[in-house]
Amino acid sequence: MGSGLKVAGLSPRKPHGAGASDPCFCLPVDDNLGFLPTFGPCYVNLYGSPREFTGFPDPYAELNIGKGEGVAYRGRLLVSLETKLVEQHSEQKVEDLAADDILRVEKYLRRRKYSLFAAFYSASMLQDVDDAIQFEVSIGNYGNKFDTTCLPLASTTQYSRAVFDGCHYYYLPWGNVKPVVVLSSYWEDISHRVETQNQLLRIADRLEAGLEQVHLALKAQCSTEDMNSLVTQLMDELIADCR
């Protein structure tokens, strides 16, 4: 079995990049057997070590090469994966993306404006720190005060010095004046995928709840007629949800 992998690096307006493909002769696939693995086209976000760290060597450098879960946004890739059955293996090659592939991807690049409002109610159980503390909220590069590719946003709180709580920790003395940040960002519209996922999750939740009722009925040693009625109702609900 071989596979074809296409990766597109995106500018704000036009996709570009390279595709790795296998030129082997593809075998026909029986549709009755289902479908081969696919992925995307969708974005894969990349994260790395904390951006503020300036020491040498960086103790979090492994986060930049995928050894662990990164904490700071670095960028993203638009990935589309297709799997094909082939007659024999051959050496893969890298080639430019075909025009048809670019056109197919462009319809997923339509963006919408999203707004985020975040209020901070408290910050407690802090360790002893000498410097003033500031919180930042960012989505991708939006809100990142060190980034120059996006317009400045009200994404940070005012600096505040921590106060000892009289026991073991420190807190920020915000009192009744809570800091607020507001972000406006532009992202691709993936509502169709989110809605589909929500529908599938709802079907799964209803099915699990129905199976739990069946298990309880079995433990209670209900009559055969009641069990048949319960299972029939469960199947009818599942069929109706899948339509």
Kindly describe this structure:
The chain is α+β, with helices and mostly antiparallel strands. The protein folds into 3 domains: 60 residues, no CATH class; 77 residues, no CATH class; 52 residues. Helix content is 23%, strand content 27%. It has 3 helices and 9 strands; from the N terminus they run E-E-E-E-E-H-E-E-E-E-H-H. It has a 5-stranded antiparallel sheet, with helices on one face. Strand 7 and strand 8 form a beta hairpin. The longest helix has 29 residues. One of its GO terms (biological process) is macrophage activation involved in immune response.
Topology:
Elements: E1 2-10, E2 15-21, E3 38-48, E4 72-84, E5 93-96, H1 99-106, E6 111-119, E7 163-164, E8 170-171, E9 180-188, H2 191-219, H3 224-242
Antiparallel strand pairs: 1-2, 1-4, 2-5, 3-4, 6-9, 7-8
Helix pairs in contact: 2-3
Provide key terms for this protein.
27% strand, membrane, 23% helix, repeat, 3 domains, 243 residues, 3 helices, alpha+beta, transmembrane helix, two-stranded antiparallel sheet, transmembrane, Ferlin, five-stranded antiparallel β-sheet
Instruction: Give the rounded overall mean pLDDT.
Output: 83
Number of strands: 9
Proportion of residues in extended strands: 25-35%
Helix fraction, binned, reads: 10-25%
Rg estimate, integer Å: 26 Å
How many discrete domains?
A: 3
Largest sheet: 5 strands, antiparallel
Shape: extended
First-residue to last-residue Cα separation: 34 Å
Topology as a string of helices (H) and strands (E): EEEEEHEEEEHH
Which regions are unreliable across 5 or more consecutive residues at pLDDT < 50?
1-14, 21-25
Regarding quaternary structure, what we see is: single chain
What is the number of helices? 3
Helical/strand content category? alpha+beta
Identify the strand order in the major beta sheet: 3-4-1-2-5
Keywords: Membrane, Repeat, Transmembrane, Transmembrane helix
GO cellular component, one term: T-tubule
Subcellular location: Membrane
